[in-house]
Write a structure and sequence with these properties.
Length: 197
């Protein structure tokens, strides 16, 4: 699937006497802002703006290149426990891993996404990007709230849930999501849960 500034290419290579015509499915608007400028001007990305500044990712998101930012909205940050959020925001390494887990290494418009697509993030992890009917999905969940916000250096999709990579989780959080959750309870009952957090 080929896109031009997120417009889908419907028919290609209509040769004319003075050139070639490609038919697309929407009017292409002028794009002037970088991904960083979109973050700075969008009210619903206020928490992300602070997180990007704290992790020193500003220069990457305004540099030349082609990225896809899966931008967590303020709502996405509010959904996770305050204690977890404060821990990540206070840990520069975990915060950088978290944000890099939301940046894909190439520009990916919604029209070009097909079911079962695996994309690599800047963190080196992978995300399953797909679609369910009209909705786009990440790791099987329809959490993309707004899609195809174009920037000069890529594209932004707003997501309403935070995607926390394993590298930004404590041992306790990892254990709770795995087959050793009963062992975690035993650590807690023995008063040793602080070692896992």
């Amino acid at each position: 699937i080929v896109t031009v500034n997120c417009a889908r290419l419907l028919k290609a290579d209509h040769h004319a006497t003075n050139g070639v015509v490609h038919v697309i499915d929407k009017v292409i608007a002028t794009t002037t802002n970088t991904i960083q400028q979109i973050i700075e001007t969008e009210d619903s990305l206020e928490t992300l703006r602070a997180a990007v500044a704290a992790s020193d990712l500003n220069s990457l998101l305004e540099s030349e290149g082609q990225y896809t930012l899966l931008a967590p909205t303020n709502e996405a940050f509010e959904k996770i426990p305050r204690e977890t959020l404060n821990r990540i925001l206070g840990d520069p390494e975990a915060l950088r891993d978290l944000l890099n887990h939301h940046i894909l290494k190439s520009a990916m418009c919604a029209e070009a996404i097909i079911a079962g697509l695996t994309m690599e993030t800047l963190e080196g992890t992978t995300l399953d990007v797909g679609c369910s009917g009209e909705e786009l999905t990440l790791n099987g969940k329809p959490i993309i709230a707004n899609k195809d916000v174009l920037a000069t250096n890529g594209v932004v999709h707003f997501v309403n849930e935070l995607l926390i990579p394993d590298s930004a989780k404590t041992l306790f959080e990892l254990a709770q999501e795995s087959e050793v959750s009963k062992s975690t309870d035993l650590f807690r009952q023995a008063g040793l849960s602080s070692h896992l957090t």
